[in-house]
């Protein structure tokens, strides 16, 4: 991966993250922005990015309007992997990460709102994994991954 990989969706975006983040964090932010943009192109609504619930973070909270299934609330875990030399990005989502994401999501759903107070739609919940491989950007979307 080139150190200069960057996705323009972050530039000037009102929800852009602080500039004091590390280079690796900024690459992850860029991957999340790319995924959010692609999902919106498919008709999804992005409700929030980088949602903190307790000590855990949810990358994207979105609504998939369907079909094939009816509309669903989707928690999207985004993984960026620059090389397959050490395995696939999918392999980095271990049982602890899945548990943390599920616990944070169910806590948020039980509250009925995002941490900032905006209400969540009353929909079924699904957990997706989206992998981004840069140079050139490739995206693999695993619906119902965990």
Oligomer: single chain
Distance between the termini: 28 Å
Main sheet record:
5 strands, mixed
The total of helices stands at: 2
Helix content: 10-25%
Order of helices and strands: HEEEHEE
Strand portion, in percent?
25-35%
What's the structural domain tally?
1
Question: Any idea what the shape is?
Answer: globular
Provide the CATH architecture: 3-Layer(aba) Sandwich
Walk me through what this model shows:
The protein has a 5-stranded mixed β-sheet with strand order 1-2-3-4-5. The chain has helices at 23-41, 95-111; strands at residues 45-53, 56-64, 72-80, 124-133, 138-142. With 146 residues, the chain is an alpha+beta fold. It contains 2 helices and 5 strands, in the order αβββαββ. It has a single domain (8-142), classed as 3-Layer(aba) Sandwich (Trna Endonuclease, Chain: A, domain 1), CATH 3.40.1350.
